[in-house]
Amino acid sequence: MSDRSIFLVTLVVDDYDAAKAFYCDAIGFDCQQDKEQADGKRWVVVRPQGGEGASLLLAKADGEAQQAAIGHQTGGRVGFFLKTDDFDRDHAAMLARGVGFLEAPRREVYGTVAVFADPYGNRWDLIQHSA
Prior knowledge:
The protein has helices spanning 16-26, 64-69, 87-96, and strands at 8-13, 29-36, 42-48, 55-60, 78-83, 100-101, 106-108, 111-117, 123-129. By secondary structure, the chain is of the alpha+beta class.
């Protein structure tokens, strides 16, 4: 049996430090790596604290096409899903840190969910699955 998984997803941003601050300070992710590369680029990887699954590679846009993709990588749909084991705790903490939720929490058959946006307009679900 092979050991395969999606472990890293690129998120195009306009500034490494601003993106890192949002994801680490407001959302509560850990910075796994922040290493200088050639030509002023950096390898910045963030991940939910204590989480399993994919991490985000925060990649600074390079050129017009990438700049235009910032915040529109999924065509306006929710494209990222942040799973939690305590929705109320994380929702309250994120609100206190200035995260902009686009709706009030709602109960669905699959769990409790609310959509928020990152500073670029990418839509995320904060979700706690039903038992």
